[in-house]
Amino acid sequence: MVNKLIGVLALQGDFAEHVGLLRSCGYRCQEVRNIHDLDASDALVIPGGESTAIIKLIDRWALREPLVKRIESGMPVFGTCAGAIILARASSDGEAPLGVLDISVTRNAYGRQTESFEAEVASPHFDGALKGAFIRAPVITDVPPQVEVLAEYGGDPVLVRKDHLLASTFHPEIAGETRVHRFFLEVVCSSN
Ligand code: GLN
After folding, report:
1. Does the active-site annotation cover 81?
2. Predicted local confidence at residue 1, as pLDDT
3. pLDDT at 2 over 70
4. How many CA atoms lie within 13 A of 96 on its CB side?
5. How many angstroms separate the alpha carbon of residue 109 from the centre of ligand 1?
């Protein structure tokens, strides 16, 4: 994916942190706000933020159908926190997610903003614990066998992968953790 252009959905949320992290790692990326930006992107990051607001904006700018089509035809996507909710098949409440990743999520499962925390997340797929910020994070409640759990925290899946789709309930980009984005670009995107 070295020469590929990574889109970062920039409708709401912490898209600037993803862009900053990707650029600091040497990847080419652009903010995605419309169908033209999406068409020009080879892969997509959906940031954290407020999933209800992001889904409303996706629908307002008529991006749902093109997004689902691109994802179903193999565009790699990494969703963090609200981004994971947006990819999910089912969410406990709020707007209807895209339904492209076969997981169910319960929103705000760790409590309010003041109960947000940083944690070390152990994963056999990475050398040493991953650093992650959990900010009004969801919990993934249902993971069918075809979805791979790459990391757990407190017994819950927090990083999952199904083929070209990667989702974390935590924010690596806020904790200064680059390895999950590198994994997305160098493993998930490259295995397509
Ligand atoms: N609580 C938010 C939601 O439900 C997600 C928070 C986040 O992305 N950090 O959409």
Report:
1. yes
2. 53
3. no
4. 6
5. 10
